[in-house]
Structure formats: C-alpha cells, structure tokens
Amino acid sequence: KMFGYDSKDEMISTHPVHLYESKSDRDALFMRIMSQGKVLNALIHYRKKDGSFFWGNLNCQRVMENGEDYLIGTIVDVTLQQEQTRLLEESEKQLREAQRLAKLGNWRVAPNEKTMEWSAECARIHGFLPSSTENAFDQWVDRLEDISFEEILDGLKKFAAMNRDFEFGSWYKTPNGERRYLYYICRLEESKSAYSWYGTVQDNTVLKNQEEELISTREFYQNILDSIPVEALLIAADKSFYYISKNAIGDDELRSWMIGKTNIDYVKRRNLPLDIAEQRNEMIERAFNGNLTVRWEEKMITRDGRDSYHLRNVIPIDLKIGDEEKRFLIVYSFDINDIKSAQFRLERKNDELEKLNKELDRFVYSISHDLRAPIASVLGLNALAEECEDNEEMESLLAMQREALDRLDRYIRDVIDYARNKRLDITPKHLSIAALIEECMTDLAYLNNYSEIEFFIDVEDDCSVFSDQVRVKIILNNLLSNAIKYIDHSKEKCIVSIKAKKIDGILHLEVTDNGIGIKEEFQDQIWEIFFRAISDVPGSGLGLYILKESIKNLKGSIDLESEEGKGTGFFLKIPDFEA
Ligand code: ADP
User: Closest Cα to residue 144, out of 159, 161, 132, 127?
Assistant: First the structure.
C-alpha cells in the first residue's frame, strides 16, 4: 500500500528496479548491504506505482536461512519529516543570506560568564573571525564609542520592565581600526541565577554617514539662511506656514507653534490688528492666483510696541515634496526702518523747507513794504526839515522821524526774534517769572500808550519755570506789547492784567486786556506769519507767529479768547523742561 500497489502479487510481479529512483541507486544500496551486511536509517528515494516518489527510512539486514540469502527489514515513509527538514535548511540558508545582505547579525550575551555567541555575519560586522569568540565580550564593550556597558544594562532592564526591546546605536571601532555605526535591537532574559540578552545588530555606517552628511548640509544652508538679515518663510497653498526662518521668528517655541498655522492664527496669538493678516492674505492670494511676484510695504508693531516697517515679497515656487510637486510661496522680507525713518525725515524737512520758502516770499514782500515805508518817510521828513525854518515845525518833523525809526526798530527786533527762535538751541534754566515780567515792562515803557494803562500783576510767590530764557522773553514781550498797542482809547480806563502760577510743574500764564479785541473771523488767522487784523496801528505781523513757534519749541500751548470792542485774553501753558 505504501508503494501504491493494489496487492502483494502485483508488487512482486513488478521488476524491483521500478521501486527506486534509478538503477544506479538500487545498485549502490545493494553494494552497501552486501559489504556491510546491513543498513541503518538509510534514506532512500522510493518510486510508487504511479511514478511519484516518497522518502523511505530503511533499516535492514542480510539473513541466511536454509542456505538461502534474505534481506529483512522495515521501511518507514518519512517524506513529511524530510520535506520539513529540507524547508528548514532552506529557510536557514535564506536567513543567513538575508542577514548577509542586510548586514544584520544576531548574537547572545551572558555577561556574567562573559561569553558571547554570535552569527557569522555578526562576527563579520564587528570585525572578528566567526570562530574567535575569545575575549569577544570585553573587546566589544571597549570598542563601543557612544555607550557604556552600564548604560546598556540600564536600558535593557528599563525596557524589559515595559516588555519592550531596547534599541541603541553607537559608533564602533573594529580591531583593524575601521569605524562602523552599529545599530542594536536587544532584549533581556532574566533567570534566577543570571541574566543574558540577545538580539540583532545591523551595520548602518553608510546610512549614518549619509544622515550626518545630510545634517551637515542642512546645517550649512541653515547657517547661511540664518546669517543673512532676511526673513524667509514658505507658505503652502492653504496659506499655512510650511517653513519659517530664525530671522523671521526668533522665538523657538512660537516658531514651531506656527508651522501649519495661518497669518490669522498668528495675529490673534500676538494680539495684533487683524488688518495685518488680511493684507498678507490678500497679497498671498494675488501671488498664488496670478502666479506672480507681489511686493508690499507693511507696518508692523514690535513686541515693545514700536512701529516697524518691512518690505515683503512673495514669489510662487513649485517644490518637490517626496514624490509630489507642490506649489508654495516664498516670502522674504527685510526691515526698512532705516530707509523709512530717512524718508520721514526727508518728508519733514521738505515740509519745513516749503514753509520756509513761503515765509521767505512773504519776507521779501514785507521788506519791500514795511522796511522801505519808514525809511521813505524818514527821507521825506528829512527833506522837509532841510527847508524848515520854524522851530516848532522842526520839532514835529523830528518827532515824526523818530516814530518812523521806532517802527523800523520794532520791525528789525521782530526779525531778530524770528531768527533767534529758529536757530538757537533750547538751553533750559530756572527762570523767575516776576523778574522776567519786570524786565519786559521796563523795555516796553517807552511805547506810546504805556502811560495810559493801569497794570495788574498777580504772580504767585517764587513762581519759576525751568525753560529757555530767550523764548519765554519773546513770548512775554509779544503778549505785553500787543496788549499795550491795541488798547481801546474810547474806554475810560485801559487795563492790562498779568497772572502767573505753577500747577503740577506747568506754568499757567494769562495776559488779558480790555482793548479793541479781535474780530471772530480773524481769530484763526492772527497766528499766520505777516497777518495783521488791523491796519491803522503800525506793526510787522510777525509777533504772534514768532510767539506760536516759540511756544511750540517749548512744548507748551496757547488759547485765545477775544471779543471785538471788549478785549482779549491769551492763556498759556509752559511745562518745565525735563532735566
Ligand atoms: P502786529 O501786532 O505786528 O500786527 P501780531 O502777529 O503781533 O502782529 O498780531 C497779529 C494781529 O493780531 C494784529 O495785527 C492784531 O490785529 C491782532 N492782535 C494781536 N494782539 C491783540 C490784542 N491784544 N488785542 C487786539 N488785537 C490783537
């Protein structure tokens, strides 16, 4: 039945050679039996009736009986076992080959006994001959550069407790001096008396070198990128940040938080106005949709609350990420604060220049008018005086000449004040207000109306201000001389009152009169250079302009209250200059 025959007779009638794979196989077997008298556990490839084969385990011996030669024995079908052994051998061979190809070795260590078993590939990886296991353990531990024996043991125990493999990589020096990067995966086996561990090792030198090269290449470019004072970012098609350079965001935590977020998330987190994000998104869309470079100037607010200007550029770019080509935007920006502040300075200077130019025009006009008029009248009066023989008439001519010269003198003084306010640096010192008012009154005592006025002066005790003397004097002089000049002769009593007091480091100064007052329609214009609201009283039209500029320089303010026919009041605030 084992041979697939229907009956014993059928098999006996079959030629025995048929039962073997070949005639030579049968001959060889018979030669062995004849010479040795028996075979034990011979593995024979037998042929069945249908031509297929099976493996038989043959035990037999030669027996002589009644002068006849017999062979008696047993055949066991071991095809299944045989197939398994073959498969096992095959897979072991494959494993060895795979390990060789993968540069993967396996090993087992019992550190207490300092013994090490390893596969041929494992020995090769460590630079040893497969046979030389002597001292291998100590050598192995010594040759690992990045990890000590204690660290390995700790790691093994820690991971064993979690029922996990312990993995580590280290540079290793082979006995012939070659450096290799070896990667181990191992597991601890603990018994009561001792422990050992086993695992695999892989030679990852090539990979490691590539990785290190990649890291150093990346660091190289990163370094370049970080060294140029340009902020660089990559933005994905969904407007989220894909890459951010250190120059763009210095704060490491914020930078990594921002990856995958959008400008809207960013301004919300930093409490910045939403407009900034909206403007950025608009530019991003424009660049994406139009496939073009977009550039704009952005006003940002720094963490300490200052305005900061940036020139931003967005450029579409296709980048390969893995296998996919994706569209991104490169954003690069730099700070243009220096350029911006230069621009602002220039604009300010331009405005100033324009104002100066206008003033100059008016000066030219005024000089031809106001400066020439008194001179012309002095010359005319002089010609009359030459012909004059009457003493009384002469006196009046001289008085008229004097008046014209006074006007000229006032005009020149005003021009000098104008220049002093414009050119002189502010040099603050402690100024006694009472002393300054007195000085001013002495200077103005020669003015025509002076004697008709009753002055009320109310200055707080020790009232002083830490400010610039030249300008405070210009201010007082102009206010008082106007109050004197523009008195209302129709009034019974002409009154000018001056009040000064200090509140919270600010000098409050009031000069009020019951003079002719200023028409409401002129009250805004009287501050303009050369503006005069009245023509029958001589003046340059410079006084209030210079006064206002001086107050500006002293960082003060002035208010006006006036009613035509009733009087005028000027109310000033002049702060102490910061030391
Ligand atoms: P000026 O006095 O040389 O004309 P100002 O610039 O000092 O030039 O004054 C401008 C104008 O403001 C004057 O022409 C005058 O009409 C008006 N004004 C200034 N101060 C007074 C005042 N205290 N009372 C009435 N009018 C005044």
Answer: 127
CB 530 within 8 A of CB 362: yes
Q: Which of 480, 481, 482, 476 is nearest to 534 (CA)?
A: 482
pLDDT, position 193: 66
- Tell the burial category of 42 from Cβ atoms under 10 Å away from its Cβ (0-12, 13-18, 19+): middle
Residues 488-533 have pLDDT tens digits of 999 999 999 999 999 999 999 999 999 999 999 999 999 998 898 8
Query: Has this prediction a pTM greater than 0.70?
Result: no
User: Which residue, judged by its Cα, is nearest atom 7 of ligand 1?
Assistant: 543
pLDDT of residue 149: 87
Contact 482 CB / ligand 1 (< 6 Å): yes
Is residue 480 within 8 Å of residue 549, measured between CB atoms?
Answer: no
Q: Can you tell me the mean pLDDT for 162-173?
A: 93
Spacing, Cα 532 to ligand 1 middle (Å) = 6
As beta bridge partners, residue 189 has: 196
Look at ligand 1, atom 15, and give the residue with the nearest C-alpha. 533
> How many CA atoms lie less than 13 Å away from 375 in the CB half-sphere?
8
Work out the number of other CB atoms within 10 angstroms of the CB of residue 355.
11
First-residue to last-residue Cα distance in the chain:
123
Cα 403 to middle of ligand 1, angstroms = 19
Say yes or no to pLDDT of 354 above 60. yes
φ, ψ at 338 (rounded to 5°): -65, -45
Q: Which of 476, 439, 572, 565 is nearest to 513 (CA)?
A: 565
